[in-house]
Amino acid sequence: MFYWENINPPWLIITSLIAVLGALFTPSWSAIFRRKAVLPTVRSRWPWESTPRALEEDPDKFFAETSGKHGPAFAVHANGRKMIYVTNATLIAAIYKNSKSFVMSPLQGLWAKNCFGFPNRMLSSPVLGDIMASMHRDLSPKVVSSLLQSLASEGCSIIDARVLPPAGKHQGLLPFILDLAFDASTRSVFGPGMAALSPAFREAFWAFDTNLPRVAFGCPPQKVPGFEKHREYLVTEIISTLKDEKHHEGSELVSSCISLGVNGGWSDSDIARILLGILWPLLANAPNAIFWLFALQLQHPDGLKPLVDEIDLAWELWRKKNPGANNYVEFAKDLPELPLLKSAIDETLRYASSSYSMRQVHEEGGTAIGSYLLQPGEQVVCVTRSVHLDENIYDDPLRYDPNRFLTHTGSPTVPSHAHMPFGGGISICEGRHYAVGKIRILTVLILLEFVIELDGRSPATVKFAPDNRGFGMIRPDGDLNVKIRRRSRPAESQK
Ligand code: HEM
């Protein structure tokens, strides 16, 4: 028999305490009844920290450790916002496929507005949709080949004109690659007179790029020193380029944006802001990818030699097939398959990219990720870098292996949903075909023309910068010192 009088006061206190604590730490009752678990949540250790410090200091470590502890989906409270991070290939692929439940996040519009200074009237204008559609068409695999052809011509003339430091003197690999890619890209897309060719434009552009992630992650632009000043300088320079008659030789990509904007009643400033939105990934992402390809390859035991050998052989075969042809531009426009270079590019994009795809759970009715219930309106971030570093998919993922994606090596092929440097689903990068073509063409042209070697007497190191994550290529922290000279070729194989 159970008698209340048998329960003494200390036991009553202890059992009540257990009941209260149990209620506090048990997942919500509704979740239990729906047999869905509540997402594990990571908060800042201290109330005055706006972001869990580990996420800012070493994002790779943060995502690896948090996924190890909590599984492939978890919520993080940062900057007064709750974001749900997903780090596993299968779950991300499911999110990409389910565009009814996972819709475009309004935060994407917000970051574009804050970063590029789009006024609200631009965001609500139907012209924006028309411009996105024209960009989609002009960057499609069929149409992009004409842009790449002009990139090959511009790249060749820039490489020819390049002045190198005196023999034996080293230089930084980063400015060598970025300047070259910067000029070739702006000239091919915006026309040869683009203001971007001025050193002041270049300087303002990189200052803008450095600060952009802070604004994109929610910091008001006016609170990031210099951000608006640099952005507005870039906008003004683009406007003056557009107004200069002799500079109207840009690509279809640019001229369609301009004419859609003009016909839709947009101001010069509106049009310049859209063009800055095209210029930024064009100049910041693909050039950094080329830098990483060279930097990683130079630090690999085989160096650049296997790539140079493959390209040289292709060049000789191409000349045999095209008797009389002796021109790198024509070769670059007609590149054959280069399996090793393709694999090295895929590996660079796996190893050195960090791409977030953002989604919002549809406002009507929640949905689920795996066994977790998500509420309407919740913000989801697909962390594709975690997939790229997943040792269940990639053997020794922290090693740069240029042969990893060669199909004949006998290693199991990587499923397509495990290689996502360009994001995926409804928000996949529009510029991906152009970006890969550009990395290929400029790498071939540079390796045909120059010998690039690490300067062993003045070694320098480069690592991944912890900031600027989620927007494509990781920016470098540091640089490599290299010696660069022009290649000497037998007379008959010169350009
Ligand atoms: C290696 C080079 C590049 C990388 C790694 C890269 C990566 C990305 C990523 C991760 C996204 C977001 C994807 C998502 O939300 O799922 C994106 C979006 C985008 N990228 Fe790129 N990008 C590159 C080059 C370019 C270039 C050269 C252009 C333009 C010429 C470009 C234009 C765009 C545009 C317009 C979007 C927005 C797509 C949308 O929201 O509908 N990207 N890119």
UniProtKB/TrEMBL annotation:
Transcription regulation is among the record's keywords: no
Q: Which residues bind heme?
A: C429
Q: Which molecular function GO terms apply here?
A: heme binding; iron ion binding; oxidoreductase activity, acting on paired donors, with incorporation or reduction of molecular oxygen; steroid hydroxylase activity
Tell me which cofactor or cofactors this protein depends on. heme
Tagged with keyword Metal-binding: yes
* A Pfam family: p450
Q: Which Gene3D superfamilies match?
A: Cytochrome P450
Describe the family membership recorded for this protein in Swiss-Prot or TrEMBL.
Answer: Belongs to the cytochrome P450 family.
Q: What is this protein called?
A: Cytochrome P450
